[in-house]
């Protein structure tokens, strides 16, 4: 059920800037029990929405142990995203026009702070299972550090305790592509569309890998043009630009770069030690964006944790595609 949470107070961001208010679009599945102890909270990745039953099809059914007759699932569209939450497309109450590039920059910590305000508004004292992959994993991890007593079980997929220089470089390259589209700087709907398409094509190379394309994008012999891999890149770029906003993408990628659980906490190791939740870390063997070594680091420095590695040709996107394998791992937890 689609709902909206409106926080009608000044919201101070980590960088000192503020939003006079914000709203979060969120979705729920299943029924909350009497003592509100059956909550599963899903944190979404970069361009997803508040409907995990759409972008993570197959995870939420009785076969996985995530039985919607038993659990209450919450997923909120994060600040900065373009699916109903406060973002660059929202109206700035001071100017009465959309924020555009005047929207304040925000961090992963700001996102989790806003999610925790929603949790309080829903009257949820503890989250039974907090789940997130990729950028969603960053949020879940940070939340479990900020509010360790509120999270009982934590499931992290294809993520890291600090966004790597490699990941930041990839994001910056995508932003360069967006900024090369001169319309991006216009404060109107659809601006930066072609730049976003190029950015998505760049991103896709880090989401997949050599073997993915070797298996899925092979051409017939004697082809000299119109390659499958070429059309695939264009298709994926256009597919995203039809549903997502370039400025949201630009801001969210900046937030992703901000992720460092060790910032102002002495170290990543000491920050991870604050997590009290029973933790399952899932990595993808062929992931170029969040290599397995990052998952091993998380498991090593998070107490009461287990590490599982999935073999997949799909690279980072394996955390979305390898549903059967993820189901089997979740069965051990639920």
TrEMBL record:
Coiled coil location: none
Active-site positions on this chain: 134, 287, 316
EC number: 2.3.1.31
Domain AB hydrolase-1, first and last residues per copy: 39-320
Top-level enzyme category: transferase
Primary location: cytoplasm
Pathway the protein takes part in: Amino-acid biosynthesis; L-methionine biosynthesis via de novo pathway; O-acetyl-L-homoserine from L-homoserine: step 1/1
Sequence positions that bind substrate: 200, 317
Catalytic activity: L-homoserine + acetyl-CoA = O-acetyl-L-homoserine + CoA
Subcellular location: Cytoplasm
One Pfam family matching this protein: Abhydrolase_1
Keywords of this entry: Acyltransferase, Amino-acid biosynthesis, Cytoplasm, Methionine biosynthesis, Transferase
Molecular-function annotations in GO: homoserine O-acetyltransferase activity
Subunit structure: Homodimer.
Known function: Transfers an acetyl group from acetyl-CoA to L-homoserine, forming acetyl-L-homoserine.
Similarity comment: Belongs to the AB hydrolase superfamily. MetX family.
Name of the molecule in the record: Homoserine O-acetyltransferase
Organism from which the protein derives: Psychroflexus salinarum
């Amino acid at each position: 059920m689609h709902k909206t949470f409106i926080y009608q107070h000044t919201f101070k961001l980590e960088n000192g800037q503020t939003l006079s208010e914000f709203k979060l679009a969120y979705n729920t599945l299943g029924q909350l029990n009497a003592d509100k102890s059956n909550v599963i909270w899903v944190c979404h990745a970069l361009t997803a929405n508040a409907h995990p039953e759409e972008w993570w099809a197959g995870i939420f059914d009785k076969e996985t142990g995530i039985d919607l007759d038993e659990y209450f699932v919450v997923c909120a569209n994060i600040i900065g995203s373009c699916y109903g939450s406060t973002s660059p497309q929202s109206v700035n109450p001071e100017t009465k026009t959309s924020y555009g590039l005047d929207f304040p920059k925000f961090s992963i910590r700001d996102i989790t702070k806003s999610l925790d305000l929603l949790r309080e508004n829903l009257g949820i004292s503890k989250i039974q299972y907090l789940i997130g992959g990729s950028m969603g994993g960053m949020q879940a991890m940070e939340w479990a550090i900020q509010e360790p007593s509120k999270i009982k079980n934590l499931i992290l997929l294809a993520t890291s305790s600090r966004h790597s220089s490699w990941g930041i470089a990839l994001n910056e390259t995508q932003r360069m592509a967006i900024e090369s589209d001169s319309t991006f700087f216009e404060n109107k709907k659809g601006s930066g569309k072609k730049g976003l398409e190029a950015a998505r094509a760049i991103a896709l190379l880090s989401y997949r890998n050599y073997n993915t394309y070797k298996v899925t994008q092979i051409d017939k012999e004697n082809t000299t043009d119109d390659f499958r891999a070429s059309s695939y890149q264009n298709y994926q770029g256009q597919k995203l630009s039809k549903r997502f906003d370039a400025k949201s993408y630009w801001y969210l990628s900046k937030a992703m770069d901000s992720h460092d659980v060790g910032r102002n906490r002495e170290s990543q190791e000491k920050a991870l030690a604050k997590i009290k939740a029973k933790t399952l870390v899932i990595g993808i063997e062929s992931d170029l964006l969040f290599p397995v070594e990052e998952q091993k680091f998380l498991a090593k420095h998070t107490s009461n944790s287990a590490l599982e590695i999935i073999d997949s040709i799909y690279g980072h996107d394996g955390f979305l595609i390898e549903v059967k394998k993820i189901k089997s791992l979740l069965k051990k937890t639920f």
